[in-house]
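Dear colleagues,

As part of the handover before I leave the project, I'm documenting each prediction I ran so the next person doesn't have to rerun anything. This entry is a single chain, and its sequence is reproduced below.
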Amino acid sequence: MLKIAFDPIYAHPLPEGHRFPMLKYELIPGQLQHEGLISEDNLFSPTAVPEDVILLTHDANYWHQLRDLTLPPKEQRRIGFPLTEQLIERERRIAQGTIDGCYFARQYGVAFNVAGGTHHAGTNWGEGFCMLNDQAIAANYLLNKGLCKSILIIDLDVHQGNGTAQVFESEPRVFTFSMHGDKNFPFRKERSDLDIPLEDGIEDEAYLSLLKDTLPGLISKHKPDFIFYLSGVDVLSSDKLGKLSLSKEACKERDRFVLSACKNKGIPVQVSMGGGYSPQIKDIVEAHCNTYRVAMELYF
């Protein structure tokens, strides 16, 4: 059964100017249910991730300032909006949803978090609307519990996974792979284990060729026993922040290639949805739903 982390708090309204992207968190499961691909049984609502699990990844002082809403104004501006208790609760539930998804992925092969992909959060900073790094927290949780020995993080959001790269810069058990816009945010990049910077305007064939030439070798060389996939749809040509030129069809083929690679090797994969900022919400939702449709075709 495909299991999907979703909670109404994911769609918590943000300050003016940030509310539009939040609509997708309710619309994605709604569309999938409308199509009959999933039912309420496929959805699960996570609790808040415990503090001791957060501290496997994030600096104690940084976490306490988040928790107590005492993060300095300069650091809040770096995140992109002022802190509230509900926003911190939202981040904690997203992180736990990704951890729970790891257990479901181990059981069913693949699992999703409707939100997540908060890859700009480092050990002691938040940035780009990310405060707690959900996939980094889940990866450290798996390692701490002895559930995995080798992890691959595939980050195909249009923005570099700078926080994830920094968290694992000295952790040989986690290989970080980020394929992202070279001239896009964040403008100060960290060093992933493998970065593929992309020129503005790259189109379907060139993008997919790079991915297909790279990913199988990474899996063969590093032999992960768990994979995290960040499947941002801000790579679309319609995206107002992405600067790339991928079609919806190529984005779907990207997802098919990644998920097929995981399934064919028998490696469980947890998927967090990442970014998407096309002016038309229907384009964002359709591209995200394609990722679920591909998973249903391949696994179920």
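The chain has one domain: 3-299. The domain at 3-299 is CATH 3.40.800.20 (Arginase; Chain A).

All the best with the project,
I.
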